[in-house]
Amino acid sequence: MLSVLLDRLGSDEQIEWERASLDSAIIQAKRGAKKTGANPTEDKGKSGTKRHLVLDRRGIPLSAVMLTAANVRDSMVFEELLDSIGPIKRPGRGRPRKRPEKLQAYPKPTMTRNVHVR
Known about the structure:
Blueprint: H1 2-11, E1 19-28, E2 37-38, E3 47-56, E4 66-69, H2 74-83, E5 102-104, H3 109-117
Parallel strand pairs: 1-5
Antiparallel strand pairs: 1-3, 2-3, 3-4
């Protein structure tokens, strides 16, 4: 379903490929589950989960939501999340696009290089 929507937006030039950002949010897991971990920022170490997502400049999700334990850093899922961006059609002819030009919020040079290499 997401790929169909992204293909349509890509064909209509509605996706901003210049900049994208990896975002995440921590959610408390009161009952616990397989992918939960101690929340490092709030709730005094209670269990929780974290949702990771790649968004374009306008807030359009380019990847599926990845669920991890709350104590997993974004840098640990960076490459897997970047690889989860499927091919998105462009207007006219040509190969579908899979990578943004720049990915925000990562100060490490090795992570920035991985955007261009992958």
